[in-house]
């Protein structure tokens, strides 16, 4: 049984120094381990530019394999998204923007701030990439013998329930809520022990080598922006 998920503070990358790209290639996750399955969520949902394969930087991918190997024999990780092009990011951003407008939000600073909580602003800046553009961010869940584990929300749910610690805050959880809490704890501790960091508003989102990872771990960022899959990849 894993311990509770500790509070995860928000961080800012605004004052970071110039990033030194390490040159690690992107690896196709479907080729690496039977303990990692690929389900490219945005490809299946039809987002512009989304690919059927999921890619991650080499060292991040190796750490993901090591995390997956710690799971019981009948369990495996399911990768939902990794490296994400600016085209896909822009498509996601606009769809969420339209969703907020339909909910009654008005154009302006408040709408932009709400968008920024869940979807990074599309950018082509190699020095200040969004986490997924760097190839160091992975969205994932865990599957067992009966399918994907219950994590309390779907992937890309933008409600408060998607916050990683949401079920830790329930003082008298039901049996189902305890099971969800324990599933999130399993994913969290596997990934943290592997050297990743979590984005606190999304139970599925982990990073290694990114600018946010660098702030949280007090290290230098390793991964700049990658514009195309052919720019720095190997199969």
How would you sum up this structure in a few lines?
By secondary structure, the chain is of the alpha+beta class.
3D structure, described in words:
The chain is of the alpha+beta class. Helices cover 29% and strands 14% of the residues. The longest helix has 19 residues, at 175-193. The N and C termini lie far apart (36 Å).
The major sheet is characterized as: 6 strands, mixed
Percent of residues in helical segments?
Answer: 25-40%
Task: Write down how many β-strands occur, each being a DSSP E stretch of 2 or more residues.
Answer: 9
What is the CA–CA distance across the termini?
36 Å
Number of helical stretches of at least 4 residues: 6
Order of helices and strands: EEHEHEHHEEHEEHE
As an assembly, this protein is: single chain
Poorly predicted runs are none
Tell me, briefly, the overall form.
globular
What is the structural class? alpha+beta
Question: What value does the average pLDDT take?
Answer: 92
Bin the strand percentage. 5-15%
Rg for CA atoms: 17 Å
Give the arrangement of secondary structure elements:
Elements: E1 26-28, E2 36-38, H1 41-44, E3 55-57, H2 58-69, E4 76-81, H3 86-102, H4 109-118, E5 137-144, E6 147-148, H5 175-193, E7 197-198, E8 205-207, H6 211-217, E9 233-234
Parallel strand pairs: 1-9, 2-4
Antiparallel strand pairs: 1-3, 4-5, 5-6, 5-8, 7-8
Q: What brief labels describe this structure?
A:
alpha+beta; 6 helices
């Amino acid at each position: 049984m894993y311990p509770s998920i500790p509070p995860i503070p928000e961080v800012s990358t605004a004052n970071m120094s110039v990033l030194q790209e390490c040159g690690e290639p992107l690896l196709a996750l479907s080729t690496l381990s039977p303990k990692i399955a690929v389900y490219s969520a945005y490809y299946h949902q039809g987002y512009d530019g989304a690919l059927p394969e999921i890619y991650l930087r080499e060292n991040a991918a190796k750490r993901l394999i090591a995390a997956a190997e710690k799971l019981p024999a009948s369990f495996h990780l399911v990768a939902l998204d990794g490296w994400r092009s600016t085209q896909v990011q822009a498509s996601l951003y606009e769809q969420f923007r339209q969703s907020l407008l339909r909910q009654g939000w008005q154009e302006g600073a408040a709408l932009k701030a709400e968008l920024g909580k869940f979807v990074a602003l599309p950018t082509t800046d190699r020095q200040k990439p969004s986490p997924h553009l760097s190839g160091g961010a992975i969205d994932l869940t865990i599957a067992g013998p009966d399918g994907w584990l219950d994590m309390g929300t779907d992937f890309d749910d933008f409600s408060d329930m998607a916050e990683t610690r949401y079920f830790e805050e329930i003082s008298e959880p039901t049996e189902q809520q305890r099971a969800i809490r324990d599933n999130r704890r399993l994913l969290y501790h596997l990934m943290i022990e592997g050297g990743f960091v979590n984005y606190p508003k999304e139970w599925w989102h982990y990073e290694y080598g990114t600018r946010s990872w660098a702030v949280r771990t007090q290290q230098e960022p390793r991964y700049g922006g990658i514009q195309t899959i052919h720019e720095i990849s190997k199969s």
